[in-house]
Write a structure and sequence with these properties.
Length: 241
C-alpha cells in the first residue's frame, strides 16, 4: 500500500495532526464501531502508551507507518486513536469511538472511556527521542483541554492493566512527563484567554437587557414564563405610560 494520505490536516496549538479516520467501511478488521461508554461519548481519560521506533522507509516516518499498518491489518488487534513521533502525528480513530489498547477488556474504562495516544520512542534519550515525548505531551494537553479534563485524567496503560509496563520509556520519569503536560495545558489556556479577553466593566456604567415591552400584562407574564423555562431569570417592571 502506498503511503497513507490524510483526509484532513489540522493545526492545533502548534501541532500538525493528520487525520484519516477508520470507519465501518475502511476494512480495518478490529474497528469496534462502538461509541465510548461515557456521557455524550465524550472521552473521560487520555491514555499514554509507548511503542518502539521501527525502521523508517524512505520518504516516510514511524507515525505514518504505524497508522498505515493499522489500515493494512498488520497491527494485530491493536487500534489506537493517535500515533505520534518526533516529526509526524496521525489521528486514525475518532475520539468518541472505542479502541483496543488498554488490555482491560471489552467493558474496561481504559478501552471504553479513554482516548489512546501512542508515542513512538526508543528510550535512548536522544534528541529525537525526547522530541517525540515532548510532542506527545503537547498532544495529551490538547486533548485534555478539548474535553475539559484535568491533569488527573491523564493515565498510563499500566493504570488500566498493572501487569503491562507501558508507556515503558516514559514511566521511569512519569511525574516529569505529567509536569510537561501541565505546562502545555496552562499555555493553551493562556492562549485561549488571550483570544477571548475578559470584558472589563466600565466604571459608573450599567447595561440592562430587555426582551419585551407589553401593553397587556398577560403577555408580559407569558414571556417571563418562556424565559424561565429556558433557564433565564426574569422580572416584570410595571411602568406608567
Ligand atoms: Zn500500552
Amino acid at each position: 500500500m502506498a503511503f497513507l494520505h490524510p483526509d484532513k490536516i489540522n493545526s492545533l496549538y502548534g501541532l500538525t495532526v493528520k487525520e484519516k479516520l477508520i470507519g465501518a467501511g475502511s476494512g480495518v478488521k478490529y474497528y469496534s464501531n462502538r461509541k465510548l461508554a461515557t456521557k455524550d461519548h465524550k472521552p473521560e481519560y487520555i491514555t499514554i502508551h509507548n511503542t518502539p521506533d521501527i525502521n523508517e522507509a524512505a520518504g516516510t516516518n514511524d507515525a505514518e507507518q504505524y497508522a498505515r499498518a493499522t489500515y493494512n491489518n498488520n497491527m494485530g488487534d491493536v487500534v489506537v486513536h493517535y500515533y505520534i513521533d518526533e516529526t509526524d502525528c496521525w489521528h486514525i480513530l475518532a475520539d468518541d469511538t472505542v479502541g483496543w489498547h488498554a488490555a482491560d477488556g471489552v467493558n474496561g474504562p481504559g478501552n471504553t472511556k479513554s482516548v489512546a495516544v501512542e508515542i513512538i520512542m526508543d528510550g535512548s534519550g536522544s534528541s529525537s527521542d525526547k522530541l517525540a515525548e515532548e510532542r506527545g505531551a503537547r498532544l495529551a494537553a490538547i486533548l485534555l483541554h478539548r474535553y475539559g479534563l484535568g491533569i488527573d485524567r491523564l493515565k498510563t496503560h499500566r493504570d488500566w492493566y498493572p501487569k503491562k509496563y507501558c508507556p515503558a520509556y516514559i514511566l521511569p520519569h512519569w511525574s516529569a512527563f505529567v509536569n510537561r503536560v501541565k505546562t502545555y495545558l496552562a499555555e493553551i489556556e493562556a492562549q485561549e484567554k488571550k483570544a477571548a479577553p475578559a470584558a472589563s466593566a466600565a466604571p459608573g456604567k450599567h447595561y440592562r437587557v430587555q426582551v419585551g415591552y407589553y401593553g397587556v400584562k398577560a403577555n408580559a407574564e407569558a414571556m417571563v414564563k418562556k424565559l424561565k423555562s429556558a433557564g433565564f431569570d426574569a422580572i416584570i417592571k410595571e411602568e406608567s405610560a
